[in-house]
Amino acid sequence: MFKHILIATDGSDIAAKAVINGLELAKSLGARAVILTATEPFLGLAQANLNTIDFAIEEYEKATKAKAARILDQVRQDALTQGVECETLHVNGFPAEAIIEAAKAKACDLIVMGSHGRRGIARLLLGSQATKVVALSSVPVLVCR
Predict the structure, then answer these.
(1) What is the per-residue pLDDT for 143?
(2) Are 117 and 143 in contact (CB under 8 A)?
(3) What pTM was computed for the model?
(4) Is residue 49 classed exposed, middle or buried when 0-12, 13-18 and 19+ CB atoms within 10 A define those classes?
(5) Domain residue limits, the chain
């Protein structure tokens, strides 16, 4: 059925559930996995003055690389524990677009991702990133809650 699964994570609790489900599915199918985390572009330029822009961008990039490394190291360990062949990928870009592009580039045949954790009536709706991926992906998407 599915041979190459892209699992998207941002390190949140909902995403962690998607990682667990994605890895379990990959193991049961004997599929490979690509674990992706995306860093959104630096958007502080509108609020920064010209003297602090370079510093702010450098600090942002340093912090996001460190966060991505922590997320991906943990997921890599989870995959090894489950015996799932796994590649990790940190990309810069808006999450929905990055997920779809990576799935195409890596020839994945399924995307697994978490829904947005919300309360009240909004919990019935998918988060904006999940909604975009479901709407725009040419491969099936499994959304985990």
Answers:
(1) 96
(2) no
(3) 0.87
(4) exposed
(5) 1-6+25-33+65-84
